[in-house]
Every structure is written in structure tokens, then in C-alpha cells.
Amino acid sequence: MPAQQKKIIFCIAGVLSFACALGTAAALGTQLWVQGTTLCKTGAQLVNATGQELEKFIGKIQYGLFYGERVRQCGLGGRPFQFSFFPDLLKIIPASIHVSVILFCTVLIVFALVGAGFFMFNAFGSPYETLHGPVGLYLWSFIACSCGCLVMILFSSEVKIHHLSEKIANFKEGSFTFKTHSEQFANSFWIILVCSLVHFLNALLIRLAGFEFPFSKSKDSGTITGAVDLMY
User: Fold this and answer.
1) CA neighbor of 111 nearest in space, from 80, 138, 75, 76
2) Which residues cross the membrane (predicted)?
């Protein structure tokens, strides 16, 4: 492939990596990871609420990795409540999983920036082997993509398997019990998915630029080496 086209491809990949780093950093600090509604089960049972009457007992909840907000509905109007994971909810959430999600988000940002730098270096500089050459580009893209996948898997397990929304809804609730009525992943979660796909796309762009995958040997080089060995 001509050098000018390679520069364009590497520039595109670098810009995408940098955009992913910014997007992940922005997503990390928002509370738009999960949005849903909670049902005040105790209040609904006390009045035998059915049909449209249940709407008076359905509140809202949304949260991210550091803080969130829920609106408590038990028939007397909505009462908003702000909360933070550190240190308020640290005792009721799966702390190891939650901290791992934050850690992998940080690693994703770092390696997205590193990948963006090396893409630009290969576009405008003189690339050399190992970490600055094609092997390094594959490495940074693979690490960033893997971290994004781990973030989604760990956070999904925290929300769905460990019932994070219910634990938050029942935080500091004595006589009332809340159940998750509906929940869905919000914008910040899907930003992580898009970033993972972008880093996978970057690996394809590297291949499109003419670089072989790491540890792959061409058949021609093996044939030439074999012919040389026969000469000696």
C-alpha cells in the first residue's frame, strides 16, 4: 500500500483511539450507566394497589460508577435521594467487582491514549520494530479492546447477577422493601461497547495498511530459508 494511504489509515486509527479515551473518561464520571424504575412492594401490598394505582409506588433510579440518584415513591409523592458508592454503599455492593470495573476503565483510557500516540508516530514518524512497530499497534489495540470487554462483563454481572439496583433501592430502608420494576443500561455503558468495537476496528485497519499479524510467518521466507539450508 502507498505510504500516503498508510498515513491516512494511521491518522484515522489514532483519532478514533483518542476519541475513545475521551469518551471513556467522560463516561467514567457520569451517572448514566443504568436507568430504571423501582416498585415500593411494601406500600403497594398495604393498599392492594393494582393497575394504574401501582404508578404511585413506582420510583426512578439512575447511577454510574461513583454516584447516582433515586426517587422514592411510596404513595405520598416522589422523594429524591442522592447517594455515592464511596463510602456510603461500600458495605452493601460487591466492592471487588465495582473497583475492578473502575480500574479497567482507567486502564482502557491509558492504553487508548498510548495507542493513539503510537498510531500518530507510525503515521508521521519512522516506525521501528517491537513496541513502536506493527506488533505494538496490535498490542495496544488488543489490550484496550480486552479492557472494554471486561468492563462490560463485570458491570453487567454486578447489575444483573448481584442485583445492584435493588441493593441501592433498599439502602437505609427499614420497613419498606423495594423491587426492581425495570432497568436498562444507559449511554455511558454503550460508550464502552462502542470503544471496544473501535479498538477491534483499529486492528483491522492495521491489517489493511499491510502489516501482518504478530507471530505470523510468510511462506516465501520459509521457502527461501529452506533453499539456503540446502546449499550448505
Assistant:
1) 138
2) 97-123, 135-155, 189-209
3-class DSSP assignment, residue 78: strand
Q: Is 179 in a helix, a strand, or coil?
A: strand
How far apart are the C-alpha atoms of 203 and 45, rounded to whole Å? 55
> Is 154 contained in some domain?
yes
- Stretch (H or E) spanning 82: strand 78-84
Residue 139 structural domain: 3-33+87-175+186-210
Distance, CA of 232 to CA of 224 (rounded, Å): 13
Contact yes or no for 118/139 (Cβ under 8 A): no
Per-residue model confidence (pLDDT) at position 139: 85
The CA distance from 188 to 171, in Å, is 24
Q: What angle do CA 115, 120, 124 make, to 5 degrees?
A: 150
Name residues of the chain where pLDDT drops below 50: 128-130, 219, 221-232
